[in-house]
Amino acid sequence: MDRDGNLTIDWNEWRDHFLFNTFHNMEEIVHHWKHSHMLDIGEQLTVPDEFSERERRSGLVWRQLVAGAMAGAVSRTGTAPLDRLKVFLQVHGSASRGMNLWSGLRGMVQEGGVSSLWRGNAINVLKIAPESAIKFMAYEQIKWVIRGNKDGGSLRVRERFIAGSLAGATAQTIIYPMEVLKTRLTLRTTGQYSGVADCARQILRREGVRAFYRGYLPNTLGIIPYAGIDLAVYETLKNAWLQRYCVDSADPGVLVLLGCGTISSTCGQLASYPLALIRTRMQAQASIEGKPKLTMVGQFKYIISHEGVPGLYRGITPNFLKVIPAVSMSYVVYEHMKKVLGVGH
């Protein structure tokens, strides 16, 4: 819209943008900018979407959350084999040094058949809905506190980062036991657990309630670099593209959104991955014989001394490999569900 790049929109720029834009009216343009930029790639996206009071009253919020949940379910299911391989590499550390992508997947199939590649996926999908709902409600409350007495208007990027991080931490605190169950079910051998309830009972009986919050501290600390870098890089890339190449359109296009999401997610993962690895090991360590029961700092020292710095990034290859297919599936399903549910129309 700002063709001359002077950070001011004059009447001619406003008129031309409105006349030649493919959307029917300015409300649709604003709506697109607000609600077409957050994609579920199977990770813990921590900055929820923003909605006006009118949109909340109309029920748009919940339709948007349903569309996002469906997109996340398809995305996570489609990339579940890579996610399971990542967890194996993270937990078994130096013992997995000879394992590559194909040998790891082949070993899982030999142990439990093709269906074993999706172990832990059911609870990973089930936790999308409560996590998204809690995160959104917490975000709205925190946003209200940050704004104070100021009504309306979107938060700045820095404020969104703070609100999103706190909302993500709140959601993770409540649903974290499901994260522990997901890790244990992902690592289980054939016949070890009969289901989610049996896994929860065995953990409670053998390890107590505290086991459901093992790894909570590194998990919460990891939200900050992931949320901050992911959001900052995404917004920077998207806005730079719009200003340079899309002066007459509010829609940067599927490939651009896909590219921005992929790059920003990769940067966020690089920063937070060591904490995610330590979290996963702490979640799993009690179920693996011979593994030392260490704290967050103890895990860090153990990995550095036994595996070196590369040990902090073990399993990151399958993690990166799943980003593009996850974003692609999520985007396609999300856009389809928005049409089905009447979001944006």
Automatic annotation (TrEMBL):
Coiled coil: none
Entry GO terms, CC: mitochondrial inner membrane
Subcellular location: Mitochondrion inner membrane
Keyword field: Membrane, Mitochondrion, Mitochondrion inner membrane, Repeat, Transmembrane, Transmembrane helix, Transport
Chain positions of Solcar repeats: 59-145, 155-240, 252-340
Claim: Repeat is one of the keywords in the record: yes
Domain of life: Eukaryota
GO molecular function: calcium ion binding
Topology within the bilayer: Multi-pass membrane protein
Annotated PANTHER family: SOLUTE CARRIER FAMILY 25
Family per similarity comment: Belongs to the mitochondrial carrier (TC 2.A.29) family.
Name the record gives this protein: Calcium-binding mitochondrial carrier SCaMC-3-like
